[in-house]
Specification:
Order of helices and strands: EEHHEHEHEHEHEHHHEE
Bound molecules: S-adenosylmethionine
Helix content: 25-40%
CATH superfamily: Vaccinia Virus protein VP39
Largest sheet: 7 strands, mixed
CATH topology: Rossmann fold
Number of domains: 1
Structural class: alpha/beta
Number of helices: 9
Distance between the termini: 52 Å
């Protein structure tokens, strides 16, 4: 068994996926394709002083993008895998005071950062929610910690990709109740997140998008 399951609620990457995620190819894809596309979907950089949270930060490359490209003032970033958090710490050593890194579960940001409701201006999901067995609880937690008007930026791997022989043979993911792009987009409004833009690529394998937390107090 290469994968590790904690209490049936979470699942880490196996060694093959770790190698893929930590490769220069992944970083180049993120830097030159995903981040520019997500910036457009999110309506450009964040407002000055913006506080961001990143779930499943992996080696911290996306965290750098959130600081440098999205121009967040501060980022709270977490990952379930202590090895990945250690890599992220090394990558972000030159950003003291702007990044808090924690080992923790994306479905409980209170435990990791003491995050109260409405704590963040932006939340980032670079390909992690499909790893959460109860993925809807990941969406719910993002919605909880976003301020009204806050943006949720997501880049996800759908059930369509996870069903491909390459994914099934090489990687370990939760097998039940995975989402299509339509499922994911339909879940967001249930948590007060209004989709502002989204598209899929590679025949629906990947979903990129942005959503805004609605101010439910306003008519
Ligand atoms: C496919 S990798 C993506 C890493 C990085 N965001 C990127 O885009 O390269 C998914 C990451 O999510 C982490 N992860 C999985 N389940 C998690 C959970 N419940 N809470 C926090 N992190 C989780 C894994 O350890 C892994 O680092």
């Amino acid at each position: 068994m290469l994968d590790v399951i904690y209490g049936g609620r979470v699942m880490l990457m196996n060694r093959i996926e770790k190698a893929a995620v930590n490769s220069p190819v992944r970083r180049a894809l993120q830097r030159f394709y995903e981040v520019p596309a997500l910036m457009k979907l999110a309506g450009g950089p964040l407002a000055p002083g913006a506080r961001a949270v990143e779930i499943g930060c992996g080696s911290g490359y996306g965290t750098r993008m959130i600081l440098d490209r999205f121009r967040a003032a501060n980022v709270d970033a977490l990952d379930l895998d202590p090895g990945m958090v250690a890599k992220a710490r090394r990558r972000l050593v030159d950003r003291p005071g702007r990044v808090r890194l924690q080992v923790g579960d994306a479905t409980d940001l209170k435990a990791a950062f003491g995050a109260a409701d409405g704590s963040y201006d932006a939340a980032f999901d670079f390909a992690i929610i499909h790893h959460i067995p109860d993925w809807r609880s990941g969406v719910a937690e993002i919605a909880r910690v976003l301020k009204p008007g806050g943006v949720f930026v997501f880049d996800e791997v759908t059930a369509h990709a996870l069903a491909r022989p390459s994914y099934r043979h090489l990687f370990d993911h939760p097998e039940h109740d995975r989402f299509t792009a339509q499922d994911f987009l339909a879940e967001l409004p249930r948590h007060g997140l209004a989709v502002t833009g989204a598209f899929t690529r590679i025949s629906g394998d990947y979903l990129l998008g942005a959503a805004r937390k609605q101010d439910l107090g306003r008519g």
